[in-house]
Amino acid sequence: MNRKLRMGMIGGGNDAFIGAIHRLAANMDGKIELVCGALSINKDIAIESGKSLFLAPERTYTSYDEMLEKEAALPEDVRMDFVTIVTPNFAHFAPAMMALEKGFHVVIEKPITLSLEEAIALDQKVKETGLVLCLTHTYTGYPMVKEARNLIQSGKIGKVRKVYVEYRQGWLSRLSEREGNAGAAWRTDAKKSGKSGVMGDIGTHAFNLAEYISGLEVAELCANLNVVVENRALDDDGAVLLKFNSGASGVLIATQVAAGEENNLSIRIYGELGGIEWHQQEPNSLLLKWYDKPMETLRAGSGYLSDIGRHNCRTPGGHPEGYLEAFANIYRNFSLTLAARINGTSVNADVVEFPSVKEGIRGMAFIENVVKSNESSEKWVKYEV
Question: pTM for the complete prediction?
Fold first, then answer.
């Protein structure tokens, strides 16, 4: 294959935030081109969005089922290779299932579906079709997150004992969903967002980051959810005590009512020999803290990083790499994997990796178990999938 991968998009029109982020990320390495889209459920917005992105009128669709039907009918050398789904949570499952049934690979926003049952059904369909599904848990795309994972896997800090992960935002400190904020409106509506507000939106990111970097899986949890802003329909604040399958323990905090905070995601993991610390708002630095010697600061772009760390760096040391680059790393690794599949070759999956259905199912199970614990008088619940 000597061409770009052809991408379609469901959702992400002119009135949406995350669609533009996906397009920037997909375009960063020049390996992907957007060829079609069903960009909004509003016909006028869908058409205008297609025009603004210079899509051919006949490939600017007004519904996802129309797009998938017509794209599947096109010649193989013309139709899209994969579809990116950037709709609200409740509109993930149906287009993803139909895309897989029509033979298209899928990139999908997190959380993967509206419910655990849907996620499991999607997993079955992926296995049945043998197609590739990528879940955009963005923060795993940062080079220093991958470096932290590699350090722990290599035993650098010894056996993990404690995990602390926090995701603090302040954008829902007011009842924004009743002030015309469309993003706040669907995120605080259980029919569109799911059983939990804050844990579905950002708690899943914190949970995924904790499991990804530590290499461990949560086995039990004890959760408390709060509705801080009066008259809000879903939780906007919460905390979870964690017990991992290795015997390690941890704490997860997620809140969207920390007035003054922007996107403050941070993680600290401590082992027998030392600890690591990473902050999303200062992503190029990874702190290594030692029991018996001074702290070290590892920096993105440095030659001393591991293979996976260097593979996911894009610029020389001292040049900031952030959210868009992390997002683009996920798209690049997905595109390299998909191109290899088309060419009948392979990639080094230890280095060229990205989140998939497994992470999606664990994320949905996290939400379900958090809600179960919050509503239980016993509080501690076994992590069930």
Answer: 0.96
